[in-house]
């Protein structure tokens, strides 16, 4: 008998984003096989045509995304709690566009993520050389200001992968900028994506770091567990370890349904 609580993987993608593999049905089956109780699809939202177009679904595919998740939801009813979410990007100027996407369907959970500093997709391995031309302190201050902007839009339930610029090993010289973001996130009552994908990347550390996880927990910020799976084999990736790290930090885990946190 397992003593672990029923786990949900609340950050997963589908092939509609053009950089993931496997049918959503296979993600759901993988979640069942991993002993999870729930799975939330949070594929990358459509964005204005000029923004990151190759790496996300088009606007005219949004209904197909919703219909596919609904089908999988029906297929797995009673066996797996399948939910419908999105990972939206925060990029200044696109708020109204994102607002319309969020109004178009009944989402369970919406993550707000920052993947760009200006025109630089800083988490894209293709552009990693750019870090060599950047001052890391300044980079993290710029990034933190954007994440704070994301939090303040009121559009999102949780902030995605809080310390993402560390992905390839470029850690912040200090945590001051992201600690200030945590104050804002706590004040606004938002949650944090506890994202195990970092354990699959060069940094070999989940997002957020153990230090930032403790700082968030001490501010009372809830966490939402996610693998950021872009393939069925990644569903549930190291969620048990994530739970242990959160327990050690005194962090509370929630899931989202109908945009409401559930303990
Ligand atoms: Zn992705
Ligand atoms: Zn992301």
From TrEMBL:
Keyword RNA-binding: no
Family: Belongs to the PHP hydrolase family. HisK subfamily.
Sequence intervals crossing the membrane: none
Keywords from the named record: Amino-acid biosynthesis, Histidine biosynthesis, Hydrolase
Gene3D superfamilies referenced in this protein's UniProt entry, alphabetically: Metal-dependent hydrolases
Key word Amino-acid biosynthesis present: yes
E.C. number: 3.1.3.15
Protein name stated in the entry: Histidinol-phosphatase
Pfam families named in the record: PHP (PF02811), PHP_C (PF13263)
Pathway where this protein functions: Amino-acid biosynthesis; L-histidine biosynthesis; L-histidine from 5-phospho-alpha-D-ribose 1-diphosphate: step 8/9
Protein species of origin: Deinococcus rhizophilus
Positions of the PHP domain: 9-196
Domain of life: Bacteria
Catalysis: reaction(s): L-histidinol phosphate + H2O = L-histidinol + phosphate
């Amino acid at each position: 008998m397992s003593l672990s609580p029923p786990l949900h993987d609340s950050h997963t993608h589908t092939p509609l984003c053009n950089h993931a593999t496997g049918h959503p049905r296979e993600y759901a089956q993988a979640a069942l096989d991993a002993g999870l109780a729930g799975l939330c699809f949070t594929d990358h939202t459509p964005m204005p045509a000029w923004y990151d177009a190759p790496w996300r679904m088009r606007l005219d595919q949004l209904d197909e995304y919703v219909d596919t998740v609904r089908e999988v939801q029906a297929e797995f009813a009673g066996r797996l709690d399948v939910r419908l979410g999105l990972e939206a990007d925060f990029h200044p100027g696109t708020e109204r566009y994102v607002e319309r996407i969020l109004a178009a369907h009944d989402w369970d959970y919406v993550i707000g993520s920052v993947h760009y500093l200006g025109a630089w997709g800083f988490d894209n391995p293709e552009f990693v050389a750019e870090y060599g031309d950047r001052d890391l302190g300044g980079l993290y201050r710029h990034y933190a200001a954007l994440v704070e902007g994301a939090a303040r839009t009121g559009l999102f339930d949780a902030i995605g992968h809080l310390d993402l610029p560390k992905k390839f090993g470029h850690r912040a010289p200090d945590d001051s900028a992201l600690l200030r973001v945590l104050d804002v996130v706590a004040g606004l009552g938002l949650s944090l994506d506890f994202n195990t994908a970092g354990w699959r990347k060069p940094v070999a550390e989940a997002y957020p770091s153990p230090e930032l996880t403790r700082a968030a927990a001490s501010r009372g910020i809830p966490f939402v567990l996610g693998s950021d799976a872009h393939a069925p084999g990644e569903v549930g990736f190291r969620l048990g370890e994530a739970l242990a790290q959160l327990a050690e930090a005194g962090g509370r885990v929630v899931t989202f349904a109908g945009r409401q946190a559930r303990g």
